[in-house]
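sanity check this:
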Amino acid sequence: MKDLIRASLAIIVISGVLMYIVSLLEDTSSAGGGGTINVYNWGEYIDPELVSQFEEETGITVIYETFDSNEAMMTKIEQGGTTYDVAMPSEYAIEKMKESDLLHPIDLNKITNLENIDPYFLDLPFDPGNEYSIPYFWGTVGIAFNPSLLDGQTFESWDDLWDPTLEQEVILVDSAREVIGMGLNSLGYSLNSTDMNELREATDKLKTLGPNVKAIIGDEIVEMMRREEAAVALTWSGQAADMMWINENIDYSVPEEGSNLWFDNMIIPKTADNVDGAHEFINFMLDAEVAAQNADYVGYSTPNQAALELMDPEVTGDERFYPTEEMRERLEVYENLGLEMLGVYNELFLEFKMDMEK
């Protein structure tokens, strides 16, 4: 009898402990809308301390993964092997994802910090009304260069890259839209051109740049320029800022013929498991102090107007990285050219790279 009573008491105690544990888990899960979110972002594109801060403030665990191109990101989300709750695509990728029904609408009522964003970066043609996307970073494509390794070149024009004195001194970012776009801009054409004659002319001109090209690479471009292994690089403004942070000899310019003005945004994929947690993360990243810290760490330009007031005026007043609206008028935003035309750009880029290996 005593054994039966002891057994019954043990069952009651164990049941109570289990109910208490379940209650704690439910409380943790309800705080912030769930226990975990999967974030898919570009490499080195967030301050890791902010991820930890978000986890501490919300109780939500962040599983973080990176991609190196919009195309790779879109393919992985479309295939659905891993479910992501937040991703950071560029503007033309968002258009493509909308067409492919890959996006979950954003409840702007849950994004209270949206008021911190400069209206210039809201309601843009690729996502009217910000139905599916929230601004994250923005910037330009241009030329990073090291005057100490050059003979006075300033790169006010794309054609300056063809200077014969730059043999084996130019690095190009490994991206079809940027490189083919540079060729098009150098001829006075739109970097969104779908005219095959213009694209052929741009590719043929790029082939004549071959002797000056030292490498076509990705993130390694920053280290090569820092170590002064090359004098010039076609790159994004944020990468240039990163180079300049370490090597003060480096400068950056956007050629007068025009270039790309890009916008990276936070989106919620349609297949997201934790939509509430995704909204919390997006809203957190729009906090003024958070956005300022993130911009200082990453080096790209923030669209967060409230964050700018907390940042170093020497940084936010630098027109190389925060070009005025007048300067932006000669820049173009990438358009979604469609799968077929994107294939043409990739084929021409491959043709250019293969020509260099001859």
